[in-house]
DNA sequence: CTGAAAGCTGACCATACGGTCAGGATGCAA
DNA sequence: TTGCATCCTGACCGTATGGTCAGCTTTCAG
């Protein structure tokens, strides 16, 4: 990678290698699942000897945990959209945009996250019972208020959230299916825009929050 | 299992053992993924010695293939709802009901299917390019006709289908998350009903197909 | 310049897994 | 009853994988 063999700073080395490993791990875990992934594959993809992986991450479990926590953080960041909003149109639109962008930019991370949850969240159970639950309860409260204020129809907030998660996440997790049905090509910029617009229109109309 | 050691018919034996193996395999593949699943675990769960598995299914791949094809068939059966319908309200309602029932009754199968697609459909690529594509194109055509006939708003049929798939499948694949957010309890009959109603209401309203 | 700490790695190990096989048990048709 | 095809299984094997380690190189503070 580095053309000149300029001496690297310790900190720099650590940062770069960890980043490379995490990126490779994310991809391999996404493609093969935890059980199917091998440290050797991750090492090859990261361009490092396998033993070096164990220098940075003691075990496969530890590496996996780091990958999952990373994507969970990104996932939570999309939450901010909700808070700053004054009504369902703003809030839900922004949230859909944010989550669709995650599906597009971090499909591997999304898959790892989906896999983790599908397998019973062995690593993230704590987070789900604390952070995720708090986040969800907060958002449920916001939606409930919007309903009270007549800004949208009385829809069960939880099922609405599930719908948002499901619909947006689908474009990452089932991306391969979507590509296949798209003639084997990945979605173009325009198609991504159309996807977002369709989702927003259907859901916002569906909850009676369309802006005139 | 059999209390009396009544002699079993050959056919019967075969059928029962294959069924037991497939059921166990579905569960183990769902919980651990293909790579994480072991023939030993499947054998234990099926109550058979490992070697007996290989008598019925030569390889792990072959067993996996059978499991995946099984769920794909169930998945396709839900299609009929669409065909018999006279309009979006009937058709989409029935489809959502059917797919939600699959998520509820076959959560393991749904997870295996999701896993298969997430990992690039190594086994089902053929089916996706033939059967699934045909099915989808047919349904797209039906929806397009509904739009032409003014029975619903002009929504992109493909993205609508993705939304239906995503939303319903979510209750199986992310069932663990939903349970966690439900206080660790699985959804009750009433909650499943509410889920269905919410989804149907939001989507049907969202596409402008609400009946009066 | 020097020594210690950090970074690196080829070779190695124990284990677990998918798969095999020889040979025994069981049903069933004739 | 007999013979044979099907069914079953404990013991075994080769391989791949996660992980270890001794010893090397590189950075860098003092």
Strand content of chain A: under 5%
CATH architectural arrangement of the largest domain in chain A: Orthogonal Bundle
Structural class of chain A: mainly alpha
Helical proportion of chain A, percent range: over 70%
Low-confidence blocks of residues of chain A: 1-5
Instruction: Using the coordinates shown, work out and report the CATH topology of the largest domain in chain A.
Output: Tetracycline Repressor, domain 2
- Number of H- or I-type helical stretches of chain A: 11
Question: Quaternary state, please?
Answer: homodimer
Q: Which of globular, elongated, flat, extended, rod-shaped describes the shape of chain A?
A: globular
What is the mean pLDDT of chain A? Answer: 94
Major pleated sheet of chain A: none
Q: By CATH's scheme, which homologous superfamily of the largest domain in chain A applies?
A: Tetracycline Repressor, domain 2
Sketch the topology of chain A as an H/E string, one letter per element: HHHHHHHHHHH
Radius of gyration of chain A: 20 Å
Q: Under the CATH scheme, which class of the largest domain in chain A? A: Mainly Alpha
Question: What's the domain count of chain A?
Answer: 2
Distance between the termini of chain A: 54 Å
